[in-house]
Amino acid sequence: MKPKILASLTLSVACFINLAPTKTDAQPTPILDSTDLYDKSPNEIGFQPIFNGKDLTGWDGSPELWSVKDGAITGQTSAEHPAKENTFLVWTNGAPADFELRCSFKLVPGDAEGFANSGVQYRSKVVKPSYWVVAGYQADMENGPNYTGILYEEKMRGILASRGEKVVIDADGKKNVVGSVGDAKKIEASVKKGDWNDYTIIAKGNHLVQIVNGHITVDVTDNEEAKAAKSGIIALQLHAGHPMMAQFKNIRIKMLD
Predict the structure, then answer these.
(1) pLDDT on residue 40
(2) Long-range pairs of 155-159 with CB within 8 A, sequence gap ≥ 24
(3) pTM of the model
(4) Which helix (DSSP H) or strand (DSSP E) does residue 201 occupy?
């Protein structure tokens, strides 16, 4: 994506969710050694990499299923080495509250069934350490036509917003679709199957926004106080089922005031 387009997108999203202006007078200490994996345009000021492009330093998951290939975090299952249940690669260096996270992802089916499903967990928690099982908000993605861009809550409330929806969740947990952020079919058409796509996740207070390839896919305000997570871990999903590969690169985060 070109710097001018990136800058325009960031400005529009910032206005959309009332973010405070980015401070540019000081640079934070990098979480990991800085790499050349991501765009160094002004649009990237304040973002720091959380994957070094070389190995899984700072991440924890099944060594049988997760590795680094061609500079990308790679989760891969096969008929010989399936995932017994949904399992995750967990970032171990923090549990962010308010942040913007950006990454690129690619999903590749491993057989003729064409199945490939993954997601980026955020404000989540580990519920089964022995198999790196995670519960919480998930920026969903798949090789099929239905789930890329939706907000799913793994092992909890399920689908909180489908693609194209602006949703307010009441204090009692009722989901109300109060508007649209775009046509679901047009958003889906922008997803490049079997190729690299860009995902942005913005979490500030109880307001959650997800963006795929420059298109806002969901806008959710979660008012269910007892279940709306305010902070938590970041993790990458490897879905149980047919053989598949999920890859992630250019993963960087900016903490928000």
Answers:
(1) 54
(2) 155/127, 156/227, 157/227
(3) 0.85
(4) strand 197-204
CB atoms within 10 A of CB 28: 11
Sign for the pseudo-dihedral over CA of 70, 72, 73, 77: negative
Q: What average pLDDT score do residues 118-145 get?
A: 98
Q: Please give the Cα distance from 32 to 18 (Å, whole number).
A: 29
Query: Is it true that domain 3-255 has CATH number 2.60.40.10?
Result: no
pLDDT at residue 31 above 90? no
Smallest CA-to-CA distance from 247 within 232, 257, 256, 236 is with 236
- How far is Cα 242 from Cα 257, in angstroms, rounded to an integer? 41
- Domain limits, the chain: 3-255
Q: Which residue in the block uniquely carries the two structure tokens 């279940």?
A: 227
As beta bridge partners, residue 193 has none
CA distance 238 to 76: 7
What are the tokens at 219? Answer: 């806008």
How far is Cα 134 from Cα 153, in angstroms, rounded to an integer? 10
Contacts of 238 (CB under 8 A, 6+ apart): 61, 65, 66, 75, 76, 77, 83, 86, 87, 88, 89, 118, 244, 246
